[in-house]
Specification:
Layout (H helix, E strand, L loop, with lengths): L1 H7 L2 H24 L2 H17 L9 H23 L10 H6 L1 H8 L3 H11 L5 H8 L3 H19 L4
Helix pairs in contact: 2-3, 2-4, 2-7, 3-4, 6-9, 7-8, 7-9, 8-9
Length: 163
């Protein structure tokens, strides 16, 4: 009976399961991009709502990737909006979970440009290829390759691992 239900599940149904499964990870990824835990939680909720609204457009191939793409694009749009209006300062003190784990890494990641940071996180933490990241962020694959090489080099230099 269970296999019949799973076999009959639509891509939209799979998306709802994914929202629950990857929500917390999405919040953490977004916090590393926007550097504000409350804003990251708001953006993750918006990403989930948008994913549900757009579920008819979901093709069923990579629900986690589709959700993360929506969330990351919302985060990058928010950062552009902030920069344009200079409305809110970045809140760094609330990111205690990341600071406690590795404060030097947290600081070094914060020095990266947000789209570069997003690409690095998608590659290193989530295992996405350069082509997948390029598609998600709507940039050429060569741009992603360049971002990753420079970001990793900067992190190695900053963290003293290049010596």
């Amino acid at each position: 009976m269970q296999s019949t239900i799973n076999a009959a599940a639509s891509p939209a149904d799979a998306l709802e399961v994914t929202l629950d499964r990857y929500y917390e990870a999405l919040v953490r990824r977004l916090m590393l991009i926007v550097r504000d835990p409350e804003e990251a939680a708001d953006l993750a909720q918006s990403a989930c709502a948008r994913a549900l609204e757009q579920r008819g457009r979901f093709d069923g191939r990579d629900p986690r990737g589709w959700l993360y793409t929506i969330g990351i694009n919302l985060a990058l749009n928010e950062l552009r909006r902030r920069r344009r209006w200079l409305a809110r300062p970045v809140v760094e003190s609330d990111a205690t979970w990341a600071i406690e784990i590795d404060p030097d890494l947290w600081s070094a990641l914060g020095e990266l440009e947000p789209r570069v940071r997003a690409a690095l996180l998608m590659n290193v933490l989530d295992g996405y290829s350069q082509a997948e990241i390029a598609t998600s962020l709507r940039v050429p694959e060569g741009t992603v390759a360049s971002w990753l090489v420079r970001a990793k080099g900067r992190l190695r230099d900053r963290l003293g691992e290049g010596e």
